[in-house]
Structure formats: C-alpha cells, structure tokens
Amino acid sequence: xxxxxxxxxxxxxxxxxxxxxxxxxxxxxxxxxxxxxxxxxxxxxxxxxxxxxxxxxxxxxxxxxxxxxxxxxxxxxxxxxxxxxxxxxxxxxxxxxxxxxxxxxxxxxxxxxxxxxxxxxxxxxxxxxxxxxxxxxxxxxxxxxxxxxxxxxxxxxxxxxxxxxxxxxxxxxxxxxxxxxxxxxxxxxxxxxxxxxxxxxxxxxxxxxxxxxxxxxxxxxxxxxxxxxxxxxxxxxxxxxxxxxxxxxxxxxxxxxxxxxxxxxxxxxxxxxxxxxxxxxxxxxxxxxxxxxxxxxxxxxxxxxxxxxxxxxxxxxxxxxxxxxxxxxxxxxxxxxxxxxxxxxxxxxxxxxxxxxxxxxxxxxxx
Length: 367
What we know:
Layout: H1 3-23, E1 35-40, H2 45-49, H3 54-61, E2 66-71, H4 74-79, E3 87-90, H5 98-108, E4 116-119, H6 126-134, E5 139-143, E6 152-154, H7 162-172, H8 188-200, E7 209-213, H9 226-240, E8 243-246, H10 253-261, E9 268-269, H11 276-284, E10 288-292, H12 295-302, E11 307-310, H13 317-320, E12 328-331, H14 350-362
Parallel strand pairs: 1-2, 1-4, 2-3, 4-5, 5-6, 7-8, 7-10, 8-9, 10-11, 11-12
Helix pairs in contact: 3-7, 5-6, 8-11, 9-14
C-alpha cells in the first residue's frame, strides 16, 4: 500500500466513524429498512444487465419495498422500463463529474425516511462511493474499493457468477436470496415496430428468424472467423428456410455488412439502428440466436432467446454465461489462462455450431 493510499484509507475510516456515530440513534436495522437506492454507472452493457436480478430479489425479500435507481448511460437504459422500479434518477457520471452527480442526487432526495444505498459489481469506484456518501446516504452496502465508507463492503468472488455476486447484497441486508435471471423490458410499440421492420425486410409470416452476433471488441479477443458465420448462415437458410438478422453497434456495422455481402441470399442488419429496448424486442421475435460472448448476448438471455454461445477458451464461463440452462448451448472446447494476442476461437467448429442450432431450432423450449 502506498503512502497516499494509506492516508486516504485513514481519512475515509475517520469519516465513516463520525458518520456512524451521528446516525447511530436513528439507524434502523437492515431488516427493517424498506427503501433502497441502487447506483448504476457501469462501463459495460453486460454489467448493467447482470445487476437487474437485484430488483426482483429485493421485491421477493422485502415485499412492499421502494426501489429507486440512479445512474447514467447503460445503467439507466437497462433499468428504465423496469416495472419493479419506483423511480429513475438520471445524473451525471460521478467518475467524470462528481460534484454535479452529487448535486443532482441531493436535489431529487428520493426518500423521506431511512434508506440503504446499494452498489453492484461494476460500480466499485471511489467516486461512486463518495457520491453516495455526499448525497446523504448514511448506510451503504455493496461492492467497493473503499470498504471504510461502507457499512457492509463486499469484494468480488471469482468463483461465483456476476449475478450470484450481486445477489450477495440481499444476504448482506439480512435476507435469504434466490436466483433471478437478468431482465430488460420493451414496450408494445417496440414490438410492433420490430414486426413491421422485419416484414419490410422480406420476412414472411411464420418464417424463423435467427439472430447473429458476429462482432465483439477486438481487445476482448472473443472472435470467430467470418467464413464460419457465413457457413452457418447458409446451413440455416438451406435446412430451415431461416432469415438471418445481424445485430451490433454502429461501429460494428461496416464489418457486419462486409460479412453479409458474400452471402448469396438476403439478410437484414439492424446494427446501430436501435435503442436497447428496441433491440430486446427484435431478439424476442427471433427463433434462436448464434452469438459470441458479448453485450447483446446478455440481452438475448434477458428476453429468454434460446442461443448457441461461442465461448473463448480463456474466459471462465461461470462469470458471465448462462450455464446449466437447456435454453443455451455454450460451446467452449479449450481452457487457457489468458488470450494470446492473435487468439480467435478456432477450436469451435462449424459442425458443432450447426448441430447445436439444429437442436434448438427443433426443440427450443427444452433445448
């Protein structure tokens, strides 16, 4: 530990001790608290989606509780239409504008009585803890790099999934926890627009639509070769008369279009053309999905889309992937401690992918 870190730790410990002394007479036990503020400032889509099980878990553990979510970016987009949330507060990201984020949260003053502020995985940063403290939250529970400022600080357990780690917050509050899947919600208008778009794209009534997620961050090293995706697309069209729908970000759209141009049949791309709720609606309409281990895969999971997931050898499936669920086929044929600079998932074959997709196409409910 550096000298600066030691000084910061001492200051934070002193602040926390003073704060707890001031609030000791009015603090209720965790089991009596019915108001919860969840802070959401994650850098990745999957991180936000894997925090959504906290909403039904809190509702199950504390019936009639009030839940407010404050955040920005992915954090708000993922939670915005969630019916289990009483209020959404949009703030600046405290990592870049702490003073503004504190001011906005103080102005909203979400609760009149005692409440607990919660931080899920991906929200451990010091400035998020400072935002929680300076906004008036006397009790903080969750993941943090500043344990001195939390009543119950949690550290990430690599032996558990992201979801299971987040649900430890329920246990830290003194309640029994159970598993809940990620959730994202879309409107009837989103669903109607998605159906209309697919019809304009040439999708016939009752024709199966298969979603492809072919792109991921280069830095993540989770790719599969374009010619293999094309081979699988040809198989699906020939065997099942499927229509292939490509999804991704606007930055990924050129690579997706390059992959599509070498196919002999019509496909559709909505890369960069939808909001998260609209994308969820499109994925809900699909029969199955073929995906890399990346953000949109978590949206597919959140809407119950059966998927074949091409997993990298260097990433433990327990952290992010839906293991032991027959709706999902995880193909991971090697195990290495880290990804070489030129790594690509060559150990997963086209034949394995087409066989897994056939199983889901023919029996998606049971996999």
